[in-house]
Design brief:
alpha/beta, globular, binds D-xylitol-5-phosphate, binds zinc ion
Length: 220
């Protein structure tokens, strides 16, 4: 089986010590860094925005996976691209019929585009935009906060997404976000995930390198 990509979520980092947190994630063996951008409207929490992403970009060579949990994300795609995002992922729930257009705009900025769905949104809503996606992100918790429990019904959605991608001839990664731990990562990988986001499981560990290694070990 191919190696799973691990994206620690900076939501669980100490924001006041971000520079050190980035170094800690490089040492821990992260593949990319997941930046949770929240506006307090699309989700009931507020994190950080464009300047933070630009400043993070200056302090790490790891690719930045920017998950936009904001309303009207199309207004900020170019700004996040200029800030140095490697991936920008936008929610179906925030874009609706405009999702395809927004994914195209992301690609137009030279950034990889990802579409995200919440746990209660069927993956079928992404059918028409698969040719415009460089990855798909399936939420396995309701977005807004780290440290929530994995919603078990998402495992079946991963399989369904994998089948949809196969049928569409699209060989792109499925990333899973929320509640991933060493106890459920094997199930998620076996269902077809190519990448996982992990916040509390990595940042909350006494030994972060061991935490990343444990996630990798369980998916071999
Ligand atoms: C939730 C965020 C997630 C979250 C994951 O809204 O999108 O990226 O930080 O954190 P854990 O791994 O703690 O569930
Ligand atoms: Zn996220």
């Amino acid at each position: 089986m191919s190696r799973i990509r691990i994206a620690p979520s900076l939501l669980s980092a100490d924001f006041a010590a971000m520079g050190e947190e980035l170094i800690s994630m490089e040492r821990a063996g992260a593949d990319l860094l997941h930046c949770d951008v929240m506006d307090g409207v699309f989700v009931p929490n507020i994190t950080f925005g464009i300047k933070m992403v630009a400043d993070i970009r200056k302090r790490t060579s790891l690719p930045l996976d920017c998950h936009l949990m904001i309303v009207e994300p199309w207004k900020y795609v170019e700004a996040f691209a200029k800030a140095g995002a490697a991936y920008i992922t936008v929610h179906y729930e925030a874009c609706g019929d405009r999702l395809g257009e927004v994914l195209q705009a992301i690609r137009g900025c030279g950034v990889k585009a990802g579409a995200v769905v919440n746990p209660d949104t069927p993956v079928s809503v992404l059918q028409n935009v698969l040719p415009l996606c460089d990855m798909v992100l399936l939420m396995s918790v309701f977005p807004g906060f780290g440290g929530q429990k994995y919603i078990g019904s998402v495992t079946a959605k991963i399989r369904e997404m994998k089948d949809m991608l196969r049928a569409a001839g699209r060989d792109i990664p499925i990333e899973i976000d929320g509640g991933i731990t060493p106890d459920n990562v094997a199930e998620v990988k076996a269902a077809g995930a190519g990448g996982i986001v992990a916040g509390s499981a990595v940042f909350g560990a006494a030994d972060r390198r061991a935490a990343v290694a444990a996630l990798r070990e369980r998916t071999k």
